[in-house]
């Protein structure tokens, strides 16, 4: 089952930076949540077992009481987590992307101070493969654009870093390389690597904003313009704003949990 | 995890590297240029700062090679028998990735900086390049600092603290550096109580969980760090690898779960690096060894901060079987700085252990007296704590009375375990069975001297003798740059399987990069009569960096000399050395003593007196003023940082100069090419005015091997990324281009060379006659020894061929392409000679005893019989010989008739006056006259020339030939030694030593044998005599040493000559320096 394509709300920009707005109806959202999104959110093998890991801390001679307390408390997937899964699904189904990483374990950083990307993978165009990096922000705010766009860990900064800092892209490529060695997608990696090593700007960047307000171009307008300045034509940057039904984000987690209880379809 | 050149070549076929396409070559050129520019860019002009573009290209190459490495990383982390190929691939990939990544700018932002530096370091270790990494740290020291700010979160504090621990692990600045790690980690555990909850309870639940996982990763990393540091220091725990695996894997898992890609990758690399560190640790040798080895390792680690083995050392031990007990003959072919001495030390420990119950001993043979001292120092420093006794034999050819006692095991000390000596000395000892204990191991340093024209045959025959007579002896030959070294190993081993060759041929390891080139002057009109130096690199056979084009070196007119005078090659050399001294000590080599002085003078016209003269230089200056002359120009030169080194200076002064150079206190050292044999340590640059060296009256081209040995001294492994070597282009640059591209070739026995020369001249059938020539002297001694042993012609003839087969040359001749014709001629001629010897067996016996050839003995005896006043026993006393009589002159007269001695003695004075002059100089010398006064009294010319001549006279003529001659003649004098008392015997036997050391009492000789400067030897000798507990017992070398060690500064002050420039304390310091302690 795939994610429905949604309704095109707006399109802007010119090579190499474009911005798109897409909206989803309640029905389309429910379908997605009950199927493929749930699969992504929940590790098929169940939640990671942290017991062994916690036990291992004893041998480090560091104290583990606080760690235990934090890690053993019940947790449910947070709303932003579901938003991210939606975004990933969107890119995979409609943008010919494939994201081997992250690979399904369900602890994830968000808003942490570590640079990198939320999604790391590939995009194929004909016979070519490109490294692809995605950043996702979920926001329940009402402003256009929302606060998640700005700040030290905002979407703006993250995309600019990916666009401008070779070091960050290199790190991600290397990291993926560590995983590629024994992976089924190794061939894809090799093709993308060859492209990248001749031109480290030859990558695809995606910035996704998941919102539950009415669609409006102001979300992306300024971003598209400013990212387009000083951007090499060999890079491709796409900004997508996914508009879920109004005020639906706060209930995303519940809905997905409901699916889990019934068993993922 | 040892890299070889094959795997380096193979990985260039990897898809990641192939993807680089033409960028690969471009990048390599950029990298080479950058390495050289970073190292010498201030002196040699190679363009400006590294551009953004260059950095990008290098980054690309580094990434591609790293990809190669990543593919094999799992094999490194979990090695099995089936993933060996991947392991090699990873190591090779890291080797290359480091090559480029080390040239990139270090980021300024804290986290980026930490990750970059740790990344570079891990790549270095995984690529087996820790020595290069150390140097990288040295060069980038100012950039590695990262401080902790007050408001940093707990995880950042952990990161920075652990980073600093790993800086210590990678840099290994000393034992304390590593030892502190344990308490640093301990403090982290304390700090956990203060800072952890702040980090965990900060914001959202998710954030808290992520932080918790991150901390778990960091705690495991901390524990692994602690364990690794402990292991490097103490060799424990035994299961270190398993424990490291456990903690690093847990850390990686935690990072993985929290999607912390940076930490995950970092920990994987550090895990691999830590495994490499463990396997290269010195402790890996202590495992199988004996308790002495373990102690040696412990001491090396705590006292010398020697924690890990260099790649060549690891290859030698772990891959090529250096310590395999079945290997009876090992040849180690390794460049300077490869760490040969450490290998020799392990071999010594092994040999002593093997022969412990029989009190076996070890001989360490070095080609020159200077090296003998250096090696003795090093061995004593490392072995004394283990209770291993190291003794040094003097460079005198004969064995003096005290040495005799020591060898026989008399005296209070326990017998020696290791004897350090020159080949000539050892030869005499072996031939005369001076030591009854079994010889366990012979180590020959700079063994390529086997092909030296003057001494090569002697060395070959020494080894042949040992092989024949010391059945239990193993061999270890150390040499640089030899092809087909296995020929030597097989020669000396009992059988082919017992021979081992350890060669770095297939290893890409080098102590540092090197450029080899030519320089010349070009006009520059910006200044009147102006000129500049230009340098270009050449392509050579050992891998050196080759840059395009010619480059200016330094500024216009570095010497205030007009262009017209700068055609002198030695002046050009001096100029190059001076400019390049800006980055480290340079050696400027000329091929005669006068040129050396001239270079030094010209350089001193340019260099000012050092603004702060180091204590070390001051000490040496005072020593020179005391021992030579107060206004000797060398003193002024040293105060400008310029040293001089050649045969016209005393051994001790040369030792002091070498010490100054080794300590990095000199800017320029001007020397003749003999410096190559005299120094064991590297400098930053080496420049030669010419590739020709004097040989007797003519000159010949330095052999490629000698050249590369000298060039090999350029570049200090710990500090210079690039060693610079240059030859003056002169008017035939094409010849030089050709010269440096020649391979060093195999070792050729002198015996073979001599026979080939005869064959070419069509004189093979005259060998029985030619064998009487000087060139064949050592060979005749060799045969004479056999005769002396058997004392029966038939037995000798029966064994002649067997004797010859012990030599390297004979076997080579026998198996040569054109049949064994030459071998048969040699055999015949040898038998003929043996027959001749049978007509005068007495001479043959004396030959063995004295080291003369039988013919030399014959001449000497004839000479003694022809004396007007025959010598009696009473003539053989110091008072008589060094007094006013003619006995000494007569003896010199005889010596001048012995070919082996005549060469060295003839250089002095005019005709007919020689023997009288020699006697007078000897008299003056032993009676304590200063070198300055000897120079004034006996030699003409300005102060420097007369002092030079005086030094040469004393050190070449008297000290070598004179002592040998006196010693030999005393044994041939017809005196019946059996009827003399011990004291009388010793009195006679001590005379040569008095000449050797320039003193006139026994006690002073003992002081000199312990490196006391000559100006204080008599005074200290008297004090020693006064202090001796039992006056009847004969004093010996080690008692004298103990006496000296007990003296306080005040004693030295009390006993020093009042007019000397050295205070008591300074005398003591010089003594410590010369005898091998550190000041």
Terminal Cα span of chain B? 40 Å
Write down the CATH class of chain A: Alpha Beta
Tell me the total number of β-strands of chain B.
17
Distance N to C terminus of chain A: 10 Å
State the helix count of chain A. 10
Total count of strands of chain A: 7
Pfam family, one (chain B): DEAD
Protein name (chain B): DEAD/DEAH box helicase
Domain Helicase C-terminal (chain B): 609-759
InterPro entries (chain B): DEAD/DEAH_box_helicase_dom (IPR011545), DNA/RNA_helicase_DEAH_CS (IPR002464), Hel308_SKI2-like (IPR050474), Helicase_ATP-bd (IPR014001), Helicase_C-like (IPR001650), P-loop_NTPase (IPR027417)
Short description:
The complex is a heterodimer of chains A (265) and B (1079). Chain A is built from 10 helices and 7 strands.
Structure description:
The complex is a heterodimer of chains A (265) and B (1079). Chain A is α/β, with parallel strands linked by helices and 265 residues long. Chain A has a single domain, classed as Restriction Endonuclease (3-Layer(aba) Sandwich), CATH 3.40.91. Chain A has ten helices and seven strands. Chain A has helices at 26-34, 36-41, 51-56, 65-72, 79-94, 155-164, 166-180, 186-198, 221-228, 252-262, and strands at residues 7-14, 17-23, 97-101, 119-125, 128-139, 203-211, 236-243. In chain A, strands 1-2-7-6-5-4-3 form a seven-stranded mixed sheet, sandwiched between helices. The termini of chain A are close together. By secondary structure, chain B is α/β, with parallel strands linked by helices. Chain B is 57% helix and 8% strand. An eight-stranded mixed sheet of chain B has the order 10-9-8-17-14-11-13-12, sandwiched between helices. Chain B has a seven-stranded parallel sheet with strand order 3-4-2-5-6-1-7, with helices on both faces. In chain B, strands 15-16 form a two-stranded antiparallel ribbon. In chain B, strand 3, helix 18 and strand 4 form a beta-alpha-beta unit. In chain B, helix 32 crosses helix 33 (793-805) and helix 40 runs antiparallel to helix 43 (943-972). The chains are: A alpha/beta (265), B alpha/beta (1079). Chain B: It comes from Paenibacillus agri. Chain B: Residues 321-540 form the Helicase ATP-binding domain. Chain B: It holds the Pfam family DEAD. Chain B: Keywords: ATP-binding, Helicase, Hydrolase, Nucleotide-binding.
